[in-house]
Amino acid sequence: MIQRKPFFNGCKPFILTLGMMALVVACGDSKKTDENLQQAFELHQQAVKIRQTTDKQIDQLKANEDSLFVSTYKADLDSISRSLEEWDEQLVEVPGFEHEHDHSDHDHSGHDHDHDHDHGEQTNLTPEQHLQVQQHLLEEIKAIAEEVNQIRE
Q: What is the pLDDT of residues 119-135, one digit of tens each?
């Protein structure tokens, strides 16, 4: 009588090796993923800080009571405020860092818009895409901040 070995007993070394290879490949890419998400979060933090500073500067400029200044720059300041609101709507949190920071320095109490800091959830983005999004948002907020700086000069 021929004794048959169960199929999986003969394949155990192969299955274990295949499983280990899959684990190594999955973990090997996570370092690059983590680096991209970490860098994306750092850019996000920079952008939010610039946003907060820009908001305070806008408030100071809008508080200027000089009639010549107001008549000259009111439309520009309103336009910049709209740009900031649009930027806020585009803001995306970096996965894994949603609760790593707060926006408590960013006060919208004197504004006529609602901003709940939900930051839109885009879980379909790869870590590389999150990095690209944060780079783009940082560039946009820097450009808006530059517009405010030009008025301040």
A: 455 568 899 999 999 99
